[in-house]
Amino acid sequence: MKPNNLLNDVLPRYFQETIELAQMLWQRHPIPVQLFLVMCFNAIIAPAVYAAAGEDLTRKAVGGLSLLGLVVIALSIYLCVVIFQPKRF
Fold first, then answer.
1. Cα–Cα distance measured from residue 27 to residue 40, given in angstroms and rounded to the nearest whole number
2. Counting Cβ atoms within 10 Å, is residue 62 exposed (0-12), middle (13-18) or buried (19+)?
3. CA dihedral in degrees (15, 16, 18, 22; nearest 10)?
4. Three-state SS string across 71-85, please?
5. Distance CA 89, CA 77 (A)
6. CA nearest 10: which of 18, 20, 21, 2?
7. Residues 42/63, Cβ–Cβ less than 8 Å
């Protein structure tokens, strides 16, 4: 009797559908998807900043600092692209 491997049968199909849905959403609504990804990344970074700062900062201030850091990184990447590829803009 052949063993039934559920991971090989089920996971790739649903994973492919998830990737296709993400691509469709990215093409139709890029700004909300980007904002969602930034918020998820901020949710990952904020506890690390809070742990490094200790009790000196409130959670709201840590969230603001994390978001400010993400904005600074995004602007620096954008400015580097504008400097090195000026004809695109």
1. 19
2. buried
3. 140
4. HHHHHHHHHHHHHHC
5. 14
6. 18
7. yes
Q: Are 31 and 38 in contact (CB under 8 A)?
A: no
Q: What confidence score (pLDDT) does residue 66 get?
A: 82
Distance of alpha carbon 83 from alpha carbon 47, whole angstroms? 34
Residue 79 neighbours by CB under 8 Å, 6+ apart:
none
Region for 57 from its dihedrals, namely left if φ exceeds 0, alpha if ψ lies in -120 to 50, beta otherwise: beta
In a structure prediction context, what are the per-residue pLDDT tens digits for the chain, which is 89 residues long?
555 555 555 555 677 777 787 788 888 888 888 888 888 888 888 788 778 877 777 878 877 888 888 889 888 988 988 898 888 76
pTM for this entry: 0.54
**Following CA atoms 22, 23, 24, 25 in sequence, which dihedral angle do they give, to the nearest 10 degrees?**
50
3-state secondary structure of 40: helix
